[in-house]
Design a protein that fits this description.
The chain has a single domain, classed as FAD/NAD(P)-binding domain (3-Layer(bba) Sandwich), CATH 3.50.50. It is 32% helix and 32% strand. The protein has ten helices and 16 strands. It has helices at residues 12-19, 45-50, 86-95, 135-140, 202-211, 254-272, 278-290, 293-305, 311-321, 324-335, and strands spanning 2-8, 25-29, 42-44, 57-68, 71-84, 100-103, 106-110, 113-116, 119-128, 150-159, 165-169, 177-184, 187-194, 219-225, 232-233, 236-238. Strands 1, 2, 6, 7, 8, 9, 15 and 16 form an eight-stranded mixed beta sheet that branches. Helix 6 packs antiparallel against helix 7 (278-290). The protein binds flavin-adenine dinucleotide (FAD). Flavin-adenine dinucleotide binds at residues 8-14, 28-31, 36, 38-43, 105-106, 129-131, 133, 135, 153-155, 191, 221-222, 224, 240-242, 246, 251-255, 257.
Length: 337
């Protein structure tokens, strides 16, 4: 059978693309849908509401606490953030689509086919939402995934209750990176990430959890790819982390993967409906994504400056953000990225 659209990756980006498609669509993932959480799953409440997934919200926050060199500075949030139940989110978004699902591991794309360990799947349009490995894009352009432009993070979910999203710039925990504590109901997600892509972070995470007198549970994690790339390779659309759509500095990737994924899906549907050609659909998608390049670069500059910046300067910025009008302005600007 030839599908109209085949998507590899049934997570934030892939499910968002699929939710906009009305034709015959195939979603391929090596894991069952929603079974493999890699993220702290913190995002804006309004993003969840906009895509009809507010049922997956576990906890909402009107305050973020910044811990800089041992001191806490509370920042009131203009738009509320939340933590979500990843499985519930994925299943809810999947139900909004008419896609078929196949559990298979893809290794590449060739001649309009996706090659997997469960056979090949033909489709008119192919979308790579496989996250940082960008398996399909990489099979067409071997330089598509560049290791140097990725952060790496791990986290553990343990019983611990709190009422703020907490971020830590603590060089005793991690030098070039950050740590976080995201409460999610009766549990909290404790994590550390290295901006340098350092993968050996177990000691750092242990130190962080020890500081809060909690015992590390199961650990998950992965790379965050933050260098915004051309999101079309050959005839393949790429959305989400694989296209470098995770934000530098904050590591926020859910919102951007959803926004770009929805746009990608809308454009593909126009191609399927014959309203536009594949070529011009790809150009529209590329232009839409790449217009954000300057904003991503600005955040990247800040990420690169962070390890060199003295703690009192970072504290000063956090203090400024603790004033409601300043925070409202900065958050509004940030949400435009
Ligand atoms: C530790 C950590 C914490 C994070 N916390 C947050 C946070 O709190 N908030 C936030 O906004 N962002 C966070 N991020 C970033 C966020 O997780 C990513 O930006 C987001 O997951 C990207 O979504 P995606 O759909 O592009 O890719 P992914 O969510 O990585 O999904 C890729 C999918 O493709 C599948 N896949 C991969 N390879 C293959 C293959 N060969 N064949 C078939 N299927 C395949 C995978 O199984 C997976 O389902 C975090 C990242 C990490 C690592």
């Amino acid at each position: 059978m030839q599908y109209d659209v085949a998507i590899v990756g049934a997570s934030f980006a892939g499910l968002s693309v699929a939710s906009k498609l009305g034709g015959s669509t195939l979603l391929i993932d090596r894991k069952d849908i929603g079974s493999h959480q890699t993220s702290a799953c913190g995002t804006l409440v309004k993003t969840m509401e906009e895509i009809g997934c507010e049922n997956s919200i576990l906890q909402e926050f009107d305050t973020a606490a910044f811990h800089v060199g041992g001191r806490e500075i509370d920042i009131p949030l203009y738009d509320r953030y939340c933590t979500i139940d990843y499985k519930k989110f994925c299943r809810t978004l999947f139900r909004q689509s008419s896609a078929d699902f196949v559990k298979a591991s893809a290794s590449g794309a060739k001649g309009g086919k996706i090659i997997t360990d469960r056979g090949n799947f033909k489709a008119r349009i192919i979308v790579d939402c496989s996250g940082w490995p960008a398996v399909l894009a990489k099979s067409v352009d071997e330089n598509y995934v560049k290791g140097g432009m990725m952060s790496f993070g791990i986290e553990t979910e343990v019983p611990f209750e709190d009422d703020k999203l907490r971020f830590f710039i603590d060089r005793k925990i991690i030098g070039n990176g950050a740590a976080w504590l995201f409460p999610a109901g009766k549990k909290s997600r404790f994590g550390v990430a290295s901006y340098a892509g350092e993968t050996n972070l177990m000691q750092n995470l242990r130190k962080f959890t020890d500081n809060h007198n909690v015992k590390m549970g199961k650990v998950h994690g992965g790379y965050f790819c933050y260098s915004l790339k051309r999101p079309c390779v050959g005839n393949i659309f790429v959305a989400g982390c694989g296209a470098g759509q995770t934000l530098p500095l904050t590591g926020e990737g859910i919102r951007r993967s959803i926004i770009f994924g929805l746009k990608c899906g809308e454009i593909i549907q126009q191609v399927i409906d014959g309203e536009t050609s594949l070529g011009s659909g790809m150009r529209v998608y590329e232009n839409l994504v790449l217009k954000y390049r300057k904003r991503y670069k600005l955040l990247l500059k800040m990420q690169e400056m962070l390890p060199e910046t003295s703690l009192w300067k970072i504290r000063l910025v956090a203090r400024l953000l603790s004033f409601k009008p300043v925070e409202k302005y900065v958050q509004k600007m940030y949400e435009k990225i």
